[in-house]
Write a structure and sequence with these properties.
By secondary structure, the protein is an alpha/beta fold. It has 9 helices and 11 strands. Helix 5 links the parallel strand 4 and strand 5. The longest helix is centred in the middle third of the chain and has 15 residues. The structure holds calcium ion. The site of calcium ion (CA) has 5 residues, from loops.
């Protein structure tokens, strides 16, 4: 594959470098091919953008959840969560953030899949940096109309999470959680009524892979139960034997 050296195009660099509104534009790059990721990162940063790089879909989603970006550039074939599923998930969380798919898959069907998943634009590798910049600029211009603020709260049943303040209440009663308990509850509340395996929880909340044989997740689930469920008639945290845990306000037999 052949990529144009971004430094070679001084005109593009100059235009971007002098554009004051681009100074704080944050771009999330999700690309597992390290060489391409580096090229994108270096090229975009030289043009005045701030970037973060994720090397797989799960990491991309994690960064998206924890930072604010004005644009997402994502590959499609990615380890763990693929680019299309990732795109759908980002769209669910934020309908407005521009998403540019950048991929070796170039058939019309592939492009349509990308647009179906909620992508705003699509570029096939190998790409020309000048074209990439032009598309980024167009997407940012389009997206500069009111962008919804990131969510400030999350609600499930009578559970309320104030995201900026990291405060949790159940039925209006404040619940004091440790940072790990909070992160675990946040992850479960972001994925209600879905069985979450211990492996998934370990990866998403603890950012770690682990082999079977440790029960620290069960320990934290128990801590959470004491604080979230013990004093309330409707239990929200349920164990699915051999599968994991689920946050739900339905009775155990219904889920
Ligand atoms: Ca890839």
């Amino acid at each position: 594959m052949k990529y144009l050296d971004p430094k070679a195009d001084l005109t593009v660099k100059k235009v971007f470098g002098e554009h004051p509104t681009l100074i704080m534009t944050h771009i999330l790059i999700i690309e597992d091919e390290q060489r391409v990721a580096e090229l994108l990162k270096n090229g975009l940063e030289e043009s005045g953008y701030q970037t973060m790089v994720a090397y797989d879909g799960d990491m991309g989603l994690r960064l998206f959840r924890t930072h604010t970006f004005q644009l997402i550039i994502s590959d499609i074939i990615l380890p763990k969560t693929n680019g299309l599923d990732l795109c759908r998930e980002i769209r669910r969380i934020n309908p407005a953030v521009p998403i540019l798919m950048l991929t070796a898959l170039g058939s019309t069907d592939d492009k349509l899949d990308g647009f179906d998943a909620g992508a705003d634009d699509y570029m096939v590798k190998p790409f020309d940096f000048r074209e990439l910049y032009a598309r980024i600029r167009a997407l940012l211009k389009r997206g500069s109309s009111p962008v919804p603020e990131p969510p400030v709260e999350l609600n499930y049943a009578d559970l309320h999470i104030d995201l900026p303040g990291k405060q949790v209440t159940r039925a209006g009663i404040p619940v004091k959680l440790s940072p790990k308990e909070y992160n675990l509850l946040l992850y479960m509340t972001e994925n209600p009524e879905r069985v979450l395996s211990r492996m998934e929880i370990a990866e998403q909340v603890w950012n770690t892979h682990f082999d079977t044989g440790t029960n620290f997740i069960d320990v934290y689930i128990n801590y959470l139960r004491k604080k979230i469920d013990r004093d309330f008639p409707t239990k929200l945290i349920h164990t699915r034997q051999g599968m994991g845990f689920v946050l739900s306000d339905k009775q155990a037999e219904e889920i």
